[in-house]
Amino acid sequence: MQQTYKLVIDCPDQVGLVASVSQFLADHNATIVEASHHTDLQTGRFFMRHEIGASTLTLNAESFVKEFTPLANEYQMNWKFTDSSKKQRVALLASLESHCLVDILHRWHTGELYCDIPVIIGNHPQMKQFADWYKVPFHWVDFKALGKEAAFAQIKTLLQEYKIDLTVLARFMQILPDTLCQELQGKAINIHHSFLPSFAGAKPYQQAYDRGVKLIGATCHYVTKDLDEGPIIEQSVKRISHSDNAADMVRKGKDCEVTALAHGVRYHLEDRVIIHRNKTVVFA
């Protein structure tokens, strides 16, 4: 895989901004592999993602940050500069349903998701079999024995010990406490079933079947203290007909869940997502 750097920028829209960044890159012999721009006309914000070939750039990562900082300050940028050769460390949290967990593990194992997965955390011991198969350390956090406060304290400690960059809730059926949501802001991704219309509570697919819905789907989003209301990264839908029963909806819903979650995780790992207020710009 070719080593690249990603320069991701979010700032007030201004005349000359793109020209200034382009000139800086040209001055340091940067080869632009991929470039994406977007202006939010309602908020007056400008978003940019440049992927740069590392082999031609005359600056290393540390020097680039130092040299680029004055320009970033001039244009009031929120920005980051990342190196593709440094894999992000991803923790997977799971409960009883395994489809999202196994799908992410398979995509990681085959190289589709470029990251390290040093730990899987489950609140049910059954998930250990999948961790063992992929040779990933597994930690069972017993919520019933510990209670929620102590259990989440243990999870927080594990995330710190494994130096986790991204936490993925792969159908983890426990609501993260507000304090942990705050600490993981922009660094935790969740997947949940979403319907048009939506159905809360128990047996959502049965509720959807009873209402005769024509579309089902799933939403991949960042975790916030507002349950299932964080910035949306990716969504997937499937059409339903009168011949589909509740079991068919569950099967098709799982397809949506694994697809949306995998895409959302990949976009995050590749620095393609910029959070703006409660929305995202995704340069897919």
Automatic annotation (TrEMBL):
Sequence ranges assigned to domain ACT in this UniProt record: 6-92
Family affiliation: Belongs to the PurU family.
EC number annotated for this UniProt entry: 3.5.1.10
EC category name: hydrolase
Keywords attached to this entry: Hydrolase, One-carbon metabolism, Purine biosynthesis
Function: Catalyzes the hydrolysis of 10-formyltetrahydrofolate (formyl-FH4) to formate and tetrahydrofolate (FH4).
Pathway given in the UniProt record: Purine metabolism; IMP biosynthesis via de novo pathway; formate from 10-formyl-5,6,7,8-tetrahydrofolate: step 1/1
GO biological process: 'de novo' IMP biosynthetic process; one-carbon metabolic process
Gene3D superfamilies, A to Z: 3.30.70.260, Formyl transferase, N-terminal domain
Taxonomy, superkingdom: Bacteria
A GO molecular-function annotation: formyltetrahydrofolate deformylase activity
Protein name in the entry: Formyltetrahydrofolate deformylase
Organism: Alteromonas hispanica
Catalytic reactions of this protein: (6R)-10-formyltetrahydrofolate + H2O = (6S)-5,6,7,8-tetrahydrofolate + formate + H(+)
InterPro entries, A to Z: ACT-like_dom_sf, ACT_dom, Formyl-FH4-Hydrolase_C, Formyl_transf_N, Formyl_transf_N_sf, PurU, PurU_ACT
Catalytic residues, chain numbering: D228
Name of the encoding gene: purU
